[in-house]
Amino acid sequence: MSKIKTFYQCQSCAYTSPKWIGKCPDCGSWNSFVEEKAAPPSRNAPSLQTYGKPEAVYLHSIEGTDADRTSTGIKEFDRVLGGGVVSGSVILVGGDPGIGKSTLLLQAFSGLSKKSGKLLYVSGEESPQQIKMRADRLSVNSDAIILLPETSLEGILDSAARISPYAMVVDSIQTMYTQELLSAPGSVGQVRECAAKLMLFAKRSQIPVFIVGHVTKEGTIAGPRVLEHIVDTVLYFEGDRGHSYRILRTIKNRFGSTNEIGIFEMSDAGLREVDNPSELFLSERPRNVSGSTVIASLEGTRPLMVEIQALVSQTNFGIPRRTSIGVDFNRVNLLIAVLEKRAGMHLGGMDVFINVVGGLKIVEPAVDLGIIATIASSVREVSIKPDTFVFGEIGLSGEVRAVAQAEARLKEAAKIGFKRAVIPAGNALKATNKEGLQVIGIKDVEEFLEAVLR
């Protein structure tokens, strides 16, 4: 009988040590080491040879073809995937508990079942009766969807080889285990090994595999980062429990663009697509109120009109507070310093609160002008005209820099009904189609504040 080896492994980065240590020398995490057991693989363990062994081929002998995509019937889901599901791809879907991951995939399977063959839904957390209850609520009734309550990876692969489905869902990867490891399900070793075998299965069989991943308290998918490196596509399902809509964001995609988003609204009948998200984010925008600005943001290839609000008030403490929701905190502090140095605005004794309405997170630099305008509007108690929107990047010397895809932003704003755009001079000079808007090009912060607050 083979001897079982014992070691300690960091649950954050998979670093191994022969003895327990308090701080991981690789990633710096404290108290993250857990005892693991490793045994030689069993000779009776099932293999992936059902689909044959891969063969080495010359590059010039391979025929170049476009990726064969299948639509799920959900336009927003197809958008973040790059146009549809690619054969043999491995897609990781992460999100907070109860955010709607299983609901989304069940609805996607309902759409796929109308255009493809059998579909396998593997659940390690719910019974078939529980999934049936959700399917009835979503009005999903397809003869092509097969439910498999299983947590053993070997049993899942055997069933998949026997059924030969068009696509497969594994919900969730943290509940799966392989018999080749003695550690508990959800540990670093099990998550990594199960994901690697599922990836190998997908590539050899050309069956797309959707993997559901749990999210930690820090907002990242549980397990090592290697899990995200293994798969082809990483999707994060975001949303605030105080709002009814959900945002599906692409973090990684080998078959399409990254930072793409799909927007859904959660209802009693499941997730519904939002065709015009700009109207959704601006539906309750106040008029003629200081501290409110609309910016034209770009998420992937989609332009969005988003409202940014600011509240600036005299501080009651020795150190003023700086709070930002939806935009980078350090970026806000940088822009406050630019306002003080380049525009002569005294904010050293002021509390500054910034919020992107609707819970959307904006990471692109084009949001800079919106933050500047919102803070200045709140300080001076001057409202910005409701038909005005802005976008642009700001440098440390106060100059306003051009951003990408300016014409797409102008087109989206004109469609919503805006009349006036205050944008970088570089974008204003190059814009060939201004969509009937009054476009004002500005070069620095002082000129910008004069244009939007007059």
What would you note in describing this structure?
Helix 8 crosses helix 9 and helix 9 crosses helix 12 (445-452). Helices cover 26% and strands 26% of the residues. By secondary structure, the protein is an alpha/beta fold. The chain contains twelve helices and 23 strands.
Percent of residues in beta strands?
25-35%
- Return the domain count: 3
Spans of 5+ residues with little confidence (pLDDT < 50)?
none
Number of strands: 23
Considering the protein shown, what is the CATH homologous superfamily of the largest domain? P-loop containing nucleotide triphosphate hydrolases
Instruction: Specify the CATH class of the largest domain.
Output: Alpha Beta
Shape: globular
The CATH topology name of the largest domain reads Rossmann fold
| Largest β sheet strand count, sense and barrel closure | 9 strands, mixed
Mean residue pLDDT: 88
SS-derived structural category: alpha/beta
Estimated helix fraction: 25-40%
Query: What is the gyration radius calculated from CA atoms?
Result: 26 Å
Question: How many helices does DSSP assign?
Answer: 12
CATH architecture of the largest domain: 3-Layer(aba) Sandwich
The rounded distance between the terminal residues' Cα atoms is: 84 Å
